[in-house]
Design a protein that fits this description.
The chain is an alpha+beta fold. About 55% of the residues lie in helices and about 10% in strands. It is built from nine helices and five strands.
Length: about 250
Protein backbone atom coordinates (compact mmCIF):
# COMPACT_ATOMS: atom_id res chain seq x y z
CA UNK A 1 0.00 0.00 0.00
CA UNK A 2 1.51 3.35 -1.08
CA UNK A 3 2.07 6.08 1.50
CA UNK A 4 0.40 9.39 0.92
CA UNK A 5 2.83 12.30 0.33
CA UNK A 6 3.47 14.34 3.48
CA UNK A 7 2.71 17.90 2.41
CA UNK A 8 3.51 19.25 5.87
CA UNK A 9 7.13 18.19 5.67
CA UNK A 10 7.51 19.86 2.27
CA UNK A 11 6.01 23.10 3.61
CA UNK A 12 8.38 23.13 6.57
CA UNK A 13 11.34 22.83 4.22
CA UNK A 14 10.29 26.08 2.56
CA UNK A 15 9.69 28.14 5.73
CA UNK A 16 13.32 29.23 5.89
CA UNK A 17 12.66 31.39 2.82
CA UNK A 18 10.24 33.55 4.83
CA UNK A 19 12.80 34.08 7.58
CA UNK A 20 15.50 34.83 5.02
CA UNK A 21 13.30 37.34 3.21
CA UNK A 22 12.47 39.12 6.50
CA UNK A 23 16.16 39.29 7.38
CA UNK A 24 17.10 40.78 4.00
CA UNK A 25 14.33 43.39 4.32
CA UNK A 26 15.52 44.42 7.79
CA UNK A 27 19.15 44.62 6.68
CA UNK A 28 18.16 46.78 3.71
CA UNK A 29 16.29 49.11 6.04
CA UNK A 30 19.28 49.26 8.41
CA UNK A 31 21.76 50.19 5.67
CA UNK A 32 19.45 52.88 4.30
CA UNK A 33 19.19 54.39 7.79
CA UNK A 34 22.97 54.25 8.30
CA UNK A 35 23.43 56.02 4.98
CA UNK A 36 20.99 58.71 6.08
CA UNK A 37 22.87 59.12 9.36
CA UNK A 38 26.09 59.86 7.45
CA UNK A 39 24.39 63.02 6.15
CA UNK A 40 23.85 65.78 8.73
CA UNK A 41 21.08 67.47 6.73
CA UNK A 42 17.99 67.01 8.91
CA UNK A 43 15.63 67.53 5.97
CA UNK A 44 17.07 64.61 4.01
CA UNK A 45 17.06 62.50 7.17
CA UNK A 46 13.36 63.11 7.69
CA UNK A 47 12.63 62.10 4.09
CA UNK A 48 14.42 58.78 4.60
CA UNK A 49 12.51 58.13 7.83
CA UNK A 50 9.19 58.82 6.13
CA UNK A 51 10.10 56.48 3.28
CA UNK A 52 10.98 53.70 5.72
CA UNK A 53 7.59 53.84 7.43
CA UNK A 54 6.30 51.49 4.77
CA UNK A 55 8.93 48.91 5.76
CA UNK A 56 8.68 49.11 9.53
CA UNK A 57 5.05 50.17 9.78
CA UNK A 58 5.81 53.19 11.98
CA UNK A 59 8.55 55.77 12.46
CA UNK A 60 8.48 55.42 16.24
CA UNK A 61 11.07 52.66 16.21
CA UNK A 62 13.39 54.86 14.15
CA UNK A 63 13.06 58.19 15.85
CA UNK A 64 12.15 57.88 19.49
CA UNK A 65 12.77 56.00 22.69
CA UNK A 66 15.79 54.20 24.07
CA UNK A 67 14.87 51.10 22.05
CA UNK A 68 15.08 52.95 18.71
CA UNK A 69 17.65 52.04 16.10
CA UNK A 70 19.11 55.54 15.75
CA UNK A 71 18.84 58.85 17.59
CA UNK A 72 16.70 61.79 16.40
CA UNK A 73 18.37 64.08 13.81
CA UNK A 74 18.23 67.04 16.21
CA UNK A 75 20.61 65.25 18.58
CA UNK A 76 22.94 64.35 15.71
CA UNK A 77 23.04 68.00 14.59
CA UNK A 78 23.74 69.17 18.13
CA UNK A 79 26.60 66.73 18.50
CA UNK A 80 28.06 67.87 15.19
CA UNK A 81 27.89 71.51 16.27
CA UNK A 82 29.56 70.73 19.58
CA UNK A 83 32.34 68.82 17.80
CA UNK A 84 33.07 71.72 15.43
CA UNK A 85 32.91 74.26 18.27
CA UNK A 86 35.42 72.21 20.30
CA UNK A 87 37.80 72.06 17.33
CA UNK A 88 37.61 75.84 16.94
CA UNK A 89 38.22 76.44 20.65
CA UNK A 90 41.27 74.20 20.48
CA UNK A 91 42.63 75.89 17.34
CA UNK A 92 42.16 79.39 18.83
CA UNK A 93 43.31 78.35 22.33
CA UNK A 94 40.12 79.68 23.89
CA UNK A 95 39.77 79.00 27.60
CA UNK A 96 36.67 81.07 28.35
CA UNK A 97 38.58 84.16 29.45
CA UNK A 98 39.23 85.60 25.96
CA UNK A 99 37.45 88.93 25.61
CA UNK A 100 37.88 89.46 21.87
CA UNK A 101 36.57 86.11 20.58
CA UNK A 102 33.50 84.12 21.57
CA UNK A 103 31.57 81.17 20.14
CA UNK A 104 27.82 80.62 20.11
CA UNK A 105 25.54 77.92 18.71
CA UNK A 106 22.00 78.22 17.38
CA UNK A 107 19.72 76.77 14.71
CA UNK A 108 21.96 78.17 11.94
CA UNK A 109 25.13 76.52 13.17
CA UNK A 110 28.26 77.70 15.00
CA UNK A 111 29.13 81.39 15.06
CA UNK A 112 32.59 82.74 15.88
CA UNK A 113 32.27 86.36 17.06
CA UNK A 114 35.46 88.40 16.58
CA UNK A 115 35.43 91.91 18.00
CA UNK A 116 36.43 94.94 15.91
CA UNK A 117 39.29 95.80 18.27
CA UNK A 118 41.08 92.59 17.33
CA UNK A 119 40.51 92.77 13.56
CA UNK A 120 40.37 96.40 12.44
CA UNK A 121 41.42 99.94 13.30
CA UNK A 122 38.46 102.10 14.31
CA UNK A 123 36.38 103.14 11.29
CA UNK A 124 38.49 101.08 8.86
CA UNK A 125 38.00 97.84 6.95
CA UNK A 126 41.74 97.08 6.65
CA UNK A 127 42.63 93.92 8.58
CA UNK A 128 45.30 94.39 11.24
CA UNK A 129 48.47 92.39 10.69
CA UNK A 130 48.34 91.33 14.34
CA UNK A 131 44.99 89.62 13.76
CA UNK A 132 46.13 87.44 10.88
CA UNK A 133 47.43 84.72 13.20
CA UNK A 134 43.90 84.37 14.59
CA UNK A 135 42.35 84.07 11.12
CA UNK A 136 45.09 81.61 10.13
CA UNK A 137 44.36 79.40 13.13
CA UNK A 138 40.63 79.51 12.46
CA UNK A 139 41.20 78.63 8.80
CA UNK A 140 42.92 75.36 9.77
CA UNK A 141 39.50 74.16 10.95
CA UNK A 142 37.32 75.86 8.33
CA UNK A 143 39.15 74.51 5.29
CA UNK A 144 38.56 70.90 6.40
CA UNK A 145 34.80 71.33 6.82
CA UNK A 146 32.26 70.59 4.08
CA UNK A 147 29.93 73.25 5.51
CA UNK A 148 29.10 76.61 3.94
CA UNK A 149 30.75 79.61 5.62
CA UNK A 150 29.05 83.00 6.05
CA UNK A 151 31.10 86.07 6.97
CA UNK A 152 28.89 88.77 8.48
CA UNK A 153 29.95 92.34 9.25
CA UNK A 154 28.34 94.36 12.06
CA UNK A 155 28.74 97.89 13.44
CA UNK A 156 27.30 99.93 16.26
CA UNK A 157 24.72 102.69 15.77
CA UNK A 158 27.18 105.59 15.66
CA UNK A 159 27.08 107.12 12.15
CA UNK A 160 30.28 107.03 10.13
CA UNK A 161 31.28 109.05 7.11
CA UNK A 162 34.70 109.00 5.53
CA UNK A 163 36.05 108.77 1.96
CA UNK A 164 36.22 104.95 1.97
CA UNK A 165 33.14 104.15 4.07
CA UNK A 166 30.35 106.73 3.75
CA UNK A 167 27.99 104.71 5.98
CA UNK A 168 27.84 101.81 8.41
CA UNK A 169 26.44 99.69 5.57
CA UNK A 170 29.61 100.23 3.55
CA UNK A 171 31.83 99.57 6.56
CA UNK A 172 30.12 96.32 7.59
CA UNK A 173 30.13 94.94 4.04
CA UNK A 174 33.76 95.94 3.42
CA UNK A 175 34.91 94.25 6.61
CA UNK A 176 33.04 91.04 5.78
CA UNK A 177 34.43 91.03 2.24
CA UNK A 178 38.03 91.53 3.42
CA UNK A 179 37.84 88.71 5.96
CA UNK A 180 36.12 86.35 3.53
CA UNK A 181 38.55 87.19 0.74
CA UNK A 182 41.53 86.60 3.03
CA UNK A 183 40.25 83.14 3.96
CA UNK A 184 39.74 82.27 0.28
CA UNK A 185 43.00 83.68 -1.07
CA UNK A 186 45.34 82.79 1.79
CA UNK A 187 43.89 79.45 2.87
CA UNK A 188 42.09 78.09 -0.17
CA UNK A 189 38.53 78.01 1.11
CA UNK A 190 36.20 77.20 -1.78
CA UNK A 191 34.63 80.46 -3.03
CA UNK A 192 31.39 78.61 -3.78
CA UNK A 193 31.03 77.83 -0.06
CA UNK A 194 31.83 81.33 1.24
CA UNK A 195 29.31 84.17 1.33
CA UNK A 196 29.59 87.66 2.82
CA UNK A 197 26.94 90.03 4.13
CA UNK A 198 26.88 93.36 5.96
CA UNK A 199 24.20 94.19 8.53
CA UNK A 200 25.44 97.63 9.64
CA UNK A 201 23.96 98.31 13.11
CA UNK A 202 20.76 96.30 12.60
CA UNK A 203 21.79 92.95 14.15
CA UNK A 204 23.23 93.96 17.56
CA UNK A 205 24.16 91.40 20.19
CA UNK A 206 23.20 93.84 22.95
CA UNK A 207 21.47 97.25 23.01
CA UNK A 208 23.65 100.15 21.85
CA UNK A 209 23.19 101.97 25.15
CA UNK A 210 26.77 102.23 26.44
CA UNK A 211 30.34 102.34 25.09
CA UNK A 212 30.91 98.77 26.32
CA UNK A 213 27.82 97.47 24.54
CA UNK A 214 28.69 99.31 21.34
CA UNK A 215 32.11 97.68 21.42
CA UNK A 216 30.46 94.25 21.62
CA UNK A 217 28.30 95.01 18.60
CA UNK A 218 31.24 96.09 16.42
CA UNK A 219 32.30 92.68 15.20
CA UNK A 220 32.64 90.17 12.38
CA UNK A 221 30.73 86.91 12.74
CA UNK A 222 31.98 83.81 10.95
CA UNK A 223 29.12 81.32 10.73
CA UNK A 224 29.71 77.62 10.04
CA UNK A 225 26.33 76.65 8.60
CA UNK A 226 25.00 73.27 9.77
CA UNK A 227 21.37 73.87 8.82
CA UNK A 228 21.15 74.83 5.16
CA UNK A 229 17.35 74.97 5.38
CA UNK A 230 17.70 78.10 7.53
CA UNK A 231 18.68 80.09 4.42
CA UNK A 232 16.75 78.20 1.75
CA UNK A 233 13.49 80.02 2.38
CA UNK A 234 14.99 83.50 2.21
CA UNK A 235 16.92 82.59 -0.96
CA UNK A 236 13.79 81.27 -2.64
CA UNK A 237 11.83 84.36 -1.59
CA UNK A 238 14.49 86.64 -3.01
CA UNK A 239 14.49 84.68 -6.27
CA UNK A 240 10.70 84.84 -6.41
CA UNK A 241 10.77 88.60 -5.89
CA UNK A 242 13.43 88.93 -8.59
CA UNK A 243 11.38 86.86 -11.03
CA UNK A 244 8.28 88.92 -10.23
CA UNK A 245 10.17 92.17 -10.83
CA UNK A 246 11.49 90.86 -14.15
CA UNK A 247 7.99 89.82 -15.20
CA UNK A 248 6.63 93.23 -14.29
CA UNK A 249 9.32 95.01 -16.29
CA UNK A 250 8.62 92.83 -19.32
CA UNK A 251 4.89 93.52 -19.04
CA UNK A 252 5.49 97.28 -19.12
CA UNK A 253 8.02 97.18 -21.95
Amino acid sequence: MKKKPQHGAHDNDERWLLTYADLITLLLGLFVILYAMSKIDAGKYAEIVNAMEGVFGSSKGLMGGSAGIVEPPVNALQRERERIADEIRTALHLDGSHQMISISENERGITVHIMEEMLFPSGSADIKNTSLVTLDSLATVLRLLPNDIRVEGHTDDVPIKNPTCPSNWHLSVARAVNVGYYLIERHGLMPSKVSVVGYAEYRPLVPNDSPEHRAQNRRVDIVIVTNTNHYTGSTNNQQARSDADSTGKEAHS
